[in-house]
Design a protein that fits this description.
alpha/beta, Beta Polymerase, domain 2, Rossmann fold, 3 domains, six-stranded parallel β-sheet, four-stranded antiparallel β-sheet, elongated
Length: 416
């Protein structure tokens, strides 16, 4: 049982690297099966968000798991290694606890990551790649996250990515109340952003999505309209604020489409926030004079503002995590010796049955029961003590001293 985690996140890699190793939702289940079926990996779960891609697994060959991720994304292992963190056993446990508790997020104390982690576990369960170790790890992870949320103020006055997007927009436009807002995508992140922007009462809201039905469901909550992604070129010019977060592997808004929109707007500025990984908006769009384009990395400075009030709570949360890590590591270590304990008991039970059968045969022949019991007790004692006595008498030097000390500890033998 070897717990191992590795990954890339916003602390270790820029967006250009993170988007190369992101897993798309529709391919995640197959990726898990591929990892478990073709590598020496017994269990696996993958967490892939705009800020991180992490693999949690049970494997004796961590290197092969890392090589698998590079191969899956058609990359050379050396291309991602400078950005990669590897976390064996106790480090992996601590990292999982910290991630779920919001202690490793771009926004300290944010809650969205916990939901994303739960979804990652659900996907792994559906793929059949969860086993005893990872089930226990994530069960304990969610418990720790709940304890941190319930006993500290880590989430108080939190600044979300969605709130940061609104704050940036307010730096560009005097009043969002006078602007038209376009959301591209209809997932959880877009829903969070829509809630924040809708609170500013923009002039109009439009939701564009691959499926019109899902776009319309979200748009109706905010009194907005809905279109498909194919209709974007006809509507883009009418919108001042564009927020996008889809699972598309390729950019949705190219430089040419945006150039045409800016021309139609007579060069009135457009504010764009691209929260997708890989990016939904071509990087070159950010070089245009009338476009203010922000990626998830660009939001980091904004979300760090006003964080001082959460630092004390973070210290309290870290203390909870540390204490719970030790408990889980103890559980893992106990699990690792279970096969040895079972084998030891089986060995002792075989000796017991042998001597019991021998004693029963003697009693059947009419032997004195007291002598039979004494014989059976002496035989069992000799068998139980034969191996440790033999090992001790044939050891020498430091090995003998260590073995003697261990036997005294095991059998509670004290020097007179």
């Amino acid at each position: 049982m070897q717990l191992f985690a590795f990954g890339i996140n916003h602390h270790t890699a820029p967006l250009a690297i993170r988007e190369q190793v992101a897993f798309h939702a529709e391919s995640l289940k197959q990726a898990l099966l591929d990892l478990v079926d073709h590598r020496p990996v017994k269990e696996a779960a993958i967490l892939s968000t705009c800020n991180r891609t992490e693999v949690y697994c049970n494997t004796e060959e961590p290197r092969q798991a890392i090589e698998w991720m590079a191969d899956f994304h058609q990359l050379k292992t050396h291309a991602i290694e400078p950005y990669l963190y590897t976390l064996p056993k106790q480090d992996a446990v601590k990292h999982a606890f910290r991630v779920a508790s919001g202690l490793d997020s771009m926004v300290l104390g944010e809650t969205q990551i916990l939901g994303q982690l739960k979804q990652a576990v659900k996907t792994a369960e559906q793929a059949g790649t969860m086993g005893t170790l990872l089930h226990k790890l994530f069960q304990r992870t969610f418990s720790v996250a709940k304890e941190v949320r319930g006993t500290t103020a880590i989430g108080a006055n939190s600044v979300s990515m969605a709130a940061a997007a609104v704050r940036l927009a307010q730096r560009i436009f005097p009043s969002i109340h006078e602007q038209n807002v376009l959301f591209i995508g209809a997932g959880e992140m877009i829903e969070l952003c829509a809630n924040h922007f809708a609170a500013q009462h923009p002039k109009h809201i439009l939701v564009a999505n691959r499926t019109l039905e899902r776009a319309d469901t979200l748009a109706q909550r905010f009194g907005g309209g809905a279109i498909t992604l194919n209709d974007l070129p006809d509507h883009l010019a009418a919108y001042d604020i564009i927020v996008t977060s889809t699972a598309s592997p390729l950019p949705i808004l190219g430089k040419g489409m945006v150039e045409r929109a800016i021309k139609a707007r007579k060069h009135r500025p457009m504010f764009m926030v691209d929260l997708a990984v890989p990016r939904d908006i071509e990087e070159e769009v950010g070089e245009m004079d009338d476009v203010f384009l922000y990626s998830v990395d660009d939001l980091s400075q904004v979300v760090q503002e006003g964080m001082d009030s959460r630092q004390v709570a973070a210290a309290e949360a870290e203390a909870i995590v540390e204490s719970r890590v030790r408990s889980f590591v103890d559980w893992m270590e106990n699990r690792e010796v279970v096969p040895t304990i079972r084998a030891l008991r089986d060995h002792a039970d075989r000796m017991r049955r042998q001597e019991l059968e021998h004693a029963q045969r003697l009693l059947a022949r009419g032997e004195d029961p007291r002598e039979v019991m004494e014989l059976m007790a002496r035989a069992l004692t000799n068998k139980f003590l034969h191996n440790p006595s033999h090992a001790l008498s044939h050891a020498s030097g430091e090995e003998r001293s260590q073995l003697e000390a261990m036997l005294r500890r095991l059998y509670h033998i004290h020097h007179e």
